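pasting for ref
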Amino acid sequence: MTSGSLAETIRIINESINTFLWGPYALLPLLLGAGLYVSIRLGFLQFTRFRRMLSETAAKILQRGPKAEGDITPFQALTVAMGGTVGVGNIAGVATAITLGGPGAVFWMWISGLLGMATKFCEVALGQHFRVREPGGPMIGGPMTYIRRGMGARWGWLASLFCVFGALAAFGIGNMVQANAVAEGLEHFGMPRWAAGTAILIAVGVVTIGGIRWIAHVASFCVPAMCGMYLLGALLVIVLYAAQIPDALRLIFTHAFSMEAGIGGLLGTAIRHGFAKGLFSNEAGLGSAPMAHATARTDHPARQGMWGIFEVFVDTIIMCSATAFVILLTGVWQGGAEGATLVMQGYTCLFAKMFAADVATALGFGLVTVSMILTAYDTNLAWCFYGETCAAYLTGRGRATRAVYRVAWLPFTLIGAIGGLRLIWGIADTLNALMALPNLIALFALGSVSARLARGFLAGESYRPPAEG
């Protein structure tokens, strides 16, 4: 067997595994089940305490946070986590959901986001509660610490398994895929892929060398800038196409509950694609974001958990909805285009009301491309931190391991920018799914702990960290 045929065989086998793991019979029901379970344990906190969540987050964005243990501000931790989630899923992912599942997929995407808000609260609160200070390094917390410290030493193998999958998956989904997206976008502006790859390598290297604090400074600028620019364009679409809003909402709700959406198979097309793309976008249940939130300076884990709710709210309920309305209000969803191209066409319709056709096309394309470049860059930075954190936990030698990991990260950035590497990307998707499984086990096992943290915080009780061990 030649190397080419062997790689193709591995790719086909991996795609079959991937289809099962991310399909309606494995990870999706587990993710949704976890979201429903923790929502019940928390008394549907994401709804009943929504105003409290806003007062703890949006109202305190410019504050430095309480004087407490940690490395960065709560808002900076949020932007690092959002840097790892806001991006391709909010743009191309939503467009794909509508293309494959119809307008009804938007409704089920909202449902996944509403449940994911509770899931993310638990992940963040548990990551904060069971975090530890890495010798000579940042606070380290996430599934590895709440599995090991919360579930007990006998589950240490599960924590290590999460870190193995996370450290490896980061090179694919967090590095090469993102570098490729940036290079593809810059290629349309006339920059060769090798030059784009070199530029990305330098831009990533000069930031990651400074660790979480430097990443946080960059993310706290890039993430709000990208979200603001993208949402401003979407708001203009909503204003100029306001007359089509009732029709768009009717499409969403009628398609969401149509026979095809709900009864076509075990999970209908609208339900399946809406849930899948919503979960892909906000990463609730994957276990990645708690590693960023665990570094925040806060006096109570549940207070940072509120930022987790806010993260999913902005990511899925606001950003994904913005993309959906751009597509549905302008009517481009029926034109046959797919992915990011569909969103570009929607924004082109907006600019066509103000400029000539060629200018409108350039502006529509440019807005989406620049947004994807910024978010792909942020994602690369965030996942470098996630990957090195997993590796540092495995070795127990934080500073040295992080330095080696950051150096190893850079060549893969260049490779991703230049090449296709479908096999590696497919394997990374599989590793992402395998990352989620240990985390979901922990969320079910520690649901009572997260509920106790929430009740204590809302009752105004002082926080007591767990015993060392």
